[in-house]
Amino acid sequence: MVEIKTDGELDAMREAGRVVAHALAAVRDAAKTGVTLRELDEAAHAVIKDAGATSPFLGYKPDFAPTPFPGVICSSVNDVVVHGIPDDYALRDGDLVSIDCGAQLDGWTGDAAISFTVGTPRPADTALIEATQRALDAAIAAAVPGNRIGDISHAVGTVARSGRYGMPADFGGHGIGRQMHEDPHVPNRGRPRRGMTLRHGLVLALEPMLMAGGSNGYRTDADGWTIRTADGSRAAHIEHTVAITKDGPRVLTLP
Length: 255
Description:
255 residues, alpha+beta, Creatine Amidinohydrolase, 4 helices
């Protein structure tokens, strides 16, 4: 069921989103060569706890997963697209890292992701991250009352196609509120003027995932969580929680 939030509930979600933004900033500051993914998870967890919030990621077990998720962040490095587990991998110069993080505060949820390089960036990685950001910007611009879900999907897909990037077809954005995943699903490709009509108070997590190799193929590791590009190319993932309002898109996961 699609839930429409009141203006007061949007304000409450903004506070949860602020916690997410601060947690991601702490991870970005800590992400140096030699630092482990587990240490990045600890940095995010400290921010979430200090804010009096909890993590919707930690212990999350959807039907497809064999075990509950063990961290408060998804840490996806290089060819990992999404859902990377924060383990003892130590960051190396030139790694492309995507961090997805959520927080629940006073019963409301925020969800966002960033992508960045550690140390010396490869030009191709910089271009990939910039294209993913453009795709998210296009999605946010389309998130206005009267548009449809397909308009958001089409906006993301247009940016990806223009750069000849691939996208994993089974993954996309989603509604968000009291739960991390709510209706509707927001595909990262689609036809304009299709799907449900956007209205004031609808909140969506918009999250383009672009793969450098151009293929849409992906594979899942034996852990049941980690999603990698099928061709071994690098991936980027950037996300914001966005409210559709009569005054235009309201990004809820800014600092």
